[in-house]
Amino acid sequence: SREWHLVARPHGWPTPADFALRETAVTEPAEGRVLVRNLHFSVDPYMRGRMNDVKSYVPPFKLDHPMDGGAVGEVVASNAEGFAVGDHVLHGLGWREYADVPAQHATKVDPDLAPLSTYLGVLGMTGLTAYAGLFEVASFKEGDAVFVSGAAGAVGSQVGQMAKLKGASRVIGSAGSDEKVKLLVEEYGFDAAFNYKNGPVRDQLREAAPDGIDVYFDNVGGDHLEAAISSLNVHGRATICGMIAQYNDTEPVPGPRNMAMIIGKRLRLQGILVGDHYDLQPRFVQEVGGWLRSGDLKYGETFVEGIENGADAFLGLLRGENTGKMIVSVTG
Ligand code: NDP
């Protein structure tokens, strides 16, 4: 079985040399464990943080050990009650072909209800992040004008559509290519979108939201956050979900220059960790499942085929090569 190891800690942008695909033996599962043949695994922006040797909300990857993260696969051997060969499970030991998973960390999923890959995206971690970040953290309400950055990505594409479905007065998105911008407006029903590479975010946001915004969902940080603070209306709220523009920085960068506006406008900026919101899971699955069945909610997936391309998939994610959820399909 092959698995991806982190072999060097990246300084700045990671490179292929920081990763190695290594062989390991597959053993029968011990008591209370299941052996899973992974079919898809997730590569996510937060994994960049885990490549640094710093204390954070998730422990860093260990050098010369397999990396981990969300995965779905098929049980091929079981030594745990309640799990049988042929069951499909969601678990946390991605980045490898075969995973030896403690049964209490495996959740059965049904491939007949939804494609397996969606349990990593629209029905999984990134979908719940969008749902909780918009409805709980940003206290979204009908009539709000919403701006989301990283809008063509896994989280962002769901935030914009969910806001629209719940009665947003206007939804604006930013993304890194003209093609993505077109998708947001023509397929996902955004009222306006812009390519942040085509000009200053502040000017493009002003133009797209002449009456300002009430909610900002931040996936990017930097100039996006500064522009949003300028465009937020009185009592506006921002969910600080990610700051991908700075994950590869080697020095801390200064924050927005217009923070003083937070006072006069009585803004609320609040961080989110999706891990705090699993209590919403039943409501989330029911509501989002309904929207998916009715066709009201769309989602994208970018599949990279073959475990040997796992590290490249992660590097591609950081460069914006994905539309919707970036997924590695293990068997190719
Ligand atoms: P995405 O599917 O959005 O993929 C990442 C995207 O980021 C790329 O496709 C790229 O799109 C964009 N990007 C890369 N560099 C930059 C840059 N310098 N400026 C602007 N955009 C950039 O990933 P996710 O949906 O999984 O995650 C989105 C954000 O949410 C991330 O910041 C992530 O860390 C965060 N997150 C936080 C969680 C939490 O609990 N707090 C949980 C899950 C995600 P483009 O072509 O548009 O540049």
TrEMBL record:
Signal peptide: none annotated. Residues 14-328 form the Enoyl reductase (ER) domain. Its EC number is 1.-.-.-. One of its GO terms (molecular function) is oxidoreductase activity. InterPro entries: ADH-like_C, ADH_N_2, ER, GroES-like_sf, MDR_fam, NAD(P)-bd_dom_sf. It comes from Streptomyces lateritius. Keywords: Oxidoreductase. Pfam families: ADH_N_2, ADH_zinc_N. It comes from the Bacteria. SMART domains: PKS_ER. Gene3D superfamilies: Medium-chain alcohol dehydrogenases, catalytic domain (3.90.180.10), NAD(P)-binding Rossmann-like Domain (3.40.50.720). This is NADP-dependent oxidoreductase.
